[in-house]
Design goal:
Layout: H1 5-62, E1 81-84, E2 87-95, E3 100-101, H2 111-123, H3 128-138, H4 171-177, E4 181-182, E5 190-191, H5 197-203, H6 209-221, H7 227-238, H8 240-244, E6 251-252, E7 257-266, E8 269-279, E9 286-294
Parallel strand pairs: 3-4, 5-6
Antiparallel strand pairs: 1-2, 2-7, 7-8, 8-9
Helix pairs in contact: 2-3, 2-5, 6-7
């Protein structure tokens, strides 16, 4: 017996609807895959932008192997920005040896540097208790306080830190201190050619601000070409008594440690990188010691 035409038509419509649903599902899966592929390609391209700037930083540092590092050199430019198709990449290189090394504080017998750090931190608006906590954190033997920024509560043994973000600081205090401190090997030296006024002032206690500005003006006109040249300038501008307090074992006129900060943008998506470069003598040259990306 032949099925009624209406029944056949209904079955056909059901089949067409099912096929349409399957087709729609396949198209949806294909579109999702296309979007994911596009996002993956975009992420890869952003990472290539970050890599390119990092390699540019290495090239700039390797092309300047001299013993003197100062803020007028090519690596210190602040206009290294490039507009690209559908985006841009920008960044800067900072001399970490121009900052106060918090790992100097790990020596409990070095009271001079601890005093200098207290002057620096409190002068920037950090409380005495927070500054003392930092000193306690990097001192071997005890336990580090729990970091208030979150994460798994830990009390690892005290001692030198790899990065300043390991310090138990509030977001406010970290923002105040970050431009002026670094976490470097304990035997690193301060580059007096790039050290900021607050850092220099902390290591030269009792310095008259006007006299310090005169010293910085001298440095701007002619970077110090030797430690002795710096000491002579301190004698001239700040006096022999201040110069006599300088620990020549912690100062230098060059650097082996630099921070690279990069921001890449593509079609509205951004990625940033913070990398620490260690510059070794050629032919080894600069190399990445630490890198952190944020998407």
């Amino acid at each position: 017996m032949t099925a009624p035409r209406g029944f056949v038509l209904v079955n056909a419509l059901v089949l067409v609807a099912a096929l349409a649903a399957v087709a729609l599902w396949l198209l949806s899966r294909a579109e999702t895959g296309r979007i994911q592929t596009a996002e993956n390609l975009q992420a890869i391209q952003l990472e290539l932008y970050l890599d390119a700037y990092e390699n540019l930083a290495i090239t700039l540092l390797d092309s300047d192997p001299g013993a003197v590092d100062h803020s007028s050199e090519a690596w210190a430019r602040r206009d290294l920005e490039l507009d690209l198709d559908r985006g841009r990449v920008a960044g800067q290189i900072d001399d970490l040896a121009g900052r106060f090394n918090v790992n100097w504080l790990s020596n409990p017998e070095d009271t001079n540097r601890r005093t200098a750090f207290m002057l620096l931190a409190t002068g920037l608006g950090v409380s005495v208790s927070s500054a003392e906590t930092i000193i306690k954190t990097v001192t071997p033997g005890g336990n580090r306080p729990t970091n208030p920024k979150g994460g798994v509560p830990e009390n690892p043994p005290g001692g030198p830190v790899l990065m300043v973000d390991q310090l138990p600081l509030s977001a406010r205090d970290l923002a105040l201190l970050r431009p002026y401190i670094a976490a470097l090997p304990g035997d690193s030296r301060l580059n007096v050619n790039t050290a900021s006024a607050p850092v220099l002032s902390s290591l030269l206690p009792g310095t008259n601000p006007a006299a310090l500005n005169a010293l910085l003006h001298d440095r701007q006109a002619q970077p110090f070409t030797s430690v002795q040249a710096f000491i002579d300038a301190v004698v001239r501008r700040l006096g022999a008594a201040t110069a006599a307090e300088i620990d020549e074992n912690i100062i230098s006129i060059g650097s082996a440690w630099f921070a690279v900060t990069v921001m890449a943008e593509l079609d509205g998506q951004q990625a940033t990188r913070r990398a620490v470069l260690r510059r070794l003598p050629l032919p080894a040259g600069a190399e990445v010691a630490y890198r952190e990306d944020d998407w």
